[in-house]
Amino acid sequence: MAASLEKEQQRNQVIGIIEEEKLQKQESKGSNKITRTQVESGEGEREMTPTAANSMHRSGSRPQLDVSKAEIQGNEEEKYPTILLPNQSDDLSHLALDIGGSLIKLVYFSRHEDQSVDDKRKRSVKERLGFSKGNRRSYPILGGRLHFVKFETRKINECLDFIHSKQLHCGGLEPCYSDGVTDQNGIIKATGGGAYKYADLFKERLGVSLDKEDEMDCLVAGANFLLKAIRHEAFTHMEGQKEFVQIEPNDLFPYLLVNIGSGVSMIKVDGDGKFERISGTNVGGGTYWGLGRLLTKCKSFDELLELSQKGDNRSMDMLVGDIYGGLDYSKIGLSASTIASSFGKTISEKKELEEYRPEDISLSLLRMISYNIGQIAYLNALRFRLKRIFFGGFFIRGHAYTMDTISFAVHFWSNGEAQAMFLRHEGFLGALGAFMSYEKHGLDDLMVHQLVERFPMGAPYTGGKIHGPPLGNLNEKASDRDWKFLIYAGGLISWMEKFLRKGTEITAPVPMTPLAGTTGLGGFEVPLSKGSTLRSDASALSVGVLHLVPTLEVFPLLADPKLYEPNTIDLSDNNELEYWLTILSEHLSDLVDKAVASEGGTDDAKRRGDAFARAFSAHLARLMEEPSAYGKLGLANLLEMREECLREFHFVDAYRSIKQRENEASLAVLPDLLVELDSMDEESRLLTLIEGVLAANIFDWGSRACVDLYHKGTIIEIYRMSRNKMRRPWRVDDFDDFKERMLGTKNNKNTRHKRALLFVDNSGADIVLGMLPLARELLRRGTEVVLVANSLPALNDVTAMELPDIIAEAAKHCDILRRAAEVGGLLVDAMINTSNSSIENSSSVPLMVVENGCGSPCIDLRQVSSELAAAAKDADLLILEGMGRALHTNLNARFKCDALKVNDVDFDFCLHPSIASMFPIMPTISYWHSLSIVSLELAMVKNQRLAEKLVKGDIYDCICKYEPVS
Ligand SMILES: Nc1ncnc2c1ncn2[C@@H]1O[C@H](COP(=O)(O)OP(=O)(O)OP(=O)(O)O)[C@@H](O)[C@H]1O
Ligand SMILES: CC(C)(CO)[C@@H](O)C(=O)NCCC(=O)O
Ligand SMILES: [Mn+2]
């Protein structure tokens, strides 16, 4: 009863919105009242320019934004003011379809509320730094997520159910009434033959019209978008080796696009919207699947492909050797193992179909078709002198052997001149292109740094909504079947329940990469069937959800964003990967304990903790088997995945209570520390401050060795112990040079820095006793300080949200901090003692807090928050603290201003050979000299065995490295 009442209310709301919008439209026809808003939002174009040739067609086809009550936010004089759409549903979704002969591909967009609240801190930062988000566009930016899903065309009903269950056909407005009531959002972009064939079915079942977009247009638009906007979208695949390539957007054209769907289209692409379909072949994916099904009685495409992995085509194919009595035909370059005639061997034998192994049939067929397509592609590339060939379409299905075969053909016939490349979103080109044909999505001018790809780590849907593929896909093949189950169960059974049931079945997935030896001159060897099972559906996990975050920006102080590589460690080295995967898996149980405790240790929390552990281990196992399963992976991505996985299992902040406890304990001793510091002269104070940063950075819950320490002593004991160990000279000790830059020499007083950005790391002692006192020193010297902290929790890192309270507490004991925080607008709410007796100079530089835009212990400076980007504009000193931000990432980053990197190096994360080796042999990073960069490396080594072995030092050794401008 209650439910139906609620439904009715919602329905009235929806109708209310629609009615209101109609009203607004009528109004706008009669007067110019809201035209500005309309023009800015893109909606106005339709109303204002009815004469434009195709405006009728195009405007009608666009899912509409609800612009009722729209108002300009912020300054009217701004060139591109942000428009607030109070009535626009946050869940506005757009859906586009590519309905092919074999598969239906869906790309849909879901908008998610900006989780960060627009709090006082944010507003004051905005005021002070003078920026407003989203000033790049003249219409509201659609931040949200792009999801990729596919269904078999023969099971179109499942697709319709899916769309219906998620209300994708009506812009995500909930609830949507397809039974008779069709709202104005009932138009969906669609491409592929099915856009024609199934138009009536969509109308009938969902009440929507399909707006047809040309298939070739869409393929090209999708490919161009992916190649320009997604980092490492393309890769080569030769002899089992996958290598990601980054192509410069201005060096992309011309190329040949070969889309291997049911049939094959070959398109010469010369630019955006500039292309020609130069060829095609009817021998394609449909041929393999169709013939294969008839010949092997396989029930699914994957089953057929899986069979091929155990096949030996020599029983089917006639080889050169079969014809030449075992000899090569070397005169024309054919080895005995070259296939002379696919399936040719079967003519000379008196065997019936049943007497052949289905495995061999499948392999023979796969090779015949892949090789043929590769060869035709090559010939067409030759016709137009195209060097690059990109292969898309779901025939490829991320299957190593298929890609190797195609690559071999291209390489062999072109003598290495042409290169075959594959796309991670292989089969979604057309659907993406259709999606992009909605105007004013702004998708076409989204830039690389505004897209973040995330893999659903275990939670197929949260809050009752499906966000990604179901869990079963981790090692289950029947993805489509699962979808159905989940849709119907959606809301009734939580995904967690399902996971817990499924969890026991999750095992390390089986590899599908045949290793070396697949190809050889003039022919192929039999694939090494290392694994007998085919990996779960490629689209399920090889392609993540694309998060569109229009507010992300490239950190403006990067010397050269093109050369910037955040990850210090290259995980494409298998030993590295193995080392880090092991570390993460060893940390897991400890992390789960923390996570469960953070949620009060309830039964529910325990179950989720258990599920999280299983999901994350499964991902680690998967990566161990197939390192490039998630595209090009850096350590930063790996660490972020862990945090994301926690969040998916609803662990908002696993270290919450630890952080709180440590903050309190540290704040309690802060006054004493400040008194101690104030009694020192400038020089010893600076040294003590740097020691303090190093010592306090010992509180790192990412490190095993440190975690063990915490069980043995109080925070303050450990901190004191840590500081007492700071005996100089440190293992590497350039402190004096740094001091000179800060304090100058007797004859030469150095100028102060204008603004320092301090990238802070952990909560507790690290921030309170380490970084805050350092910030205070800079403030005292007249340098503005911006504390840069995480947007979301990660390990025990302090977040931007938490900082104002910590600062307010600290400010109670310190006038310098208090004034600066006041000026920086951080103390609006805080109840602090306002007696300003002893400080004579009332003009203070501000202390500010900005969020960095990420939720991981590492930071990719190509994708930072607009706050940080704005704060960076006037900064002339950078201090990067902690191993995540200054070591795992950004160790090699080059900046446009002075940079000070403060790392502690701890056992688990940092003393891996690759990193440790950077410290004893400092010249390896000597190229810093060539830039105007001042950097200081401060490191503490926290493992005896490794310290001895690798740095020839002792546990808790410190490294302080400073490089002055040359
Ligand atoms: N789960 C699957 N079910 C069916 N076919 C699959 C599957 N996975 C991969 N394939 C292969 O992918 C092909 C379809 O690829 P794709 O979706 O790119 O083409 P399509 O759009 O359906 O076809 P066309 O563009 O020719 O109309 C199939 O013919 C088959 O070879
Ligand atoms: C007919 C299409 C374009 C449908 O996607 C595709 O299946 C295809 O390109 N087939 C090959 C037709 C040919 O050029 O021989
Ligand atoms: Mn197609």
Notes on the structure:
It comes from Vigna mungo. Pathway: Cofactor biosynthesis; coenzyme A biosynthesis; CoA from (R)-pantothenate: step 1/5. Its cofactor is Ni(2+); Mn(2+). It is a single chain. It contains 34 helices and 30 strands. By secondary structure, it is an alpha/beta fold. The strands form eight sheets. A seven-stranded mixed sheet has the order 7-6-3-4-5-22-17, sandwiched between helices. The longest helix has 29 residues, at 2-30. Manganese (II) ion (MN) is lined by residues 98, 100, 192, 261, 430.
Notable traits:
966 residues, alpha/beta, seven-stranded mixed beta sheet, 30 strands, 15% strand, elongated, binds adenosine-5'-triphosphate, binds pantothenoic acid, binds manganese (II) ion
Ligands, deduplicated: adenosine-5'-triphosphate, pantothenoic acid, manganese (II) ion
Shape: elongated
Helix count, per DSSP? 34
Summing up helix and strand content along with how strands pair, one would put the structural category as alpha/beta
CA-to-CA gap between the ends?
77 Å
Number of strands: 30
In terms of DSSP E residues, the strand content is: 5-15%
Summarize model confidence as the mean pLDDT.
Answer: 73
Outline the biggest β-sheet: 7 strands, mixed
Given as residue ranges, the uncertain stretches (5+ residues, pLDDT < 50) are 1-92, 133-141, 172-184, 459-494, 501-534, 536-541, 830-841, 904-951
Give the helix level as a range of percent.
25-40%
Radius of gyration: 30 Å
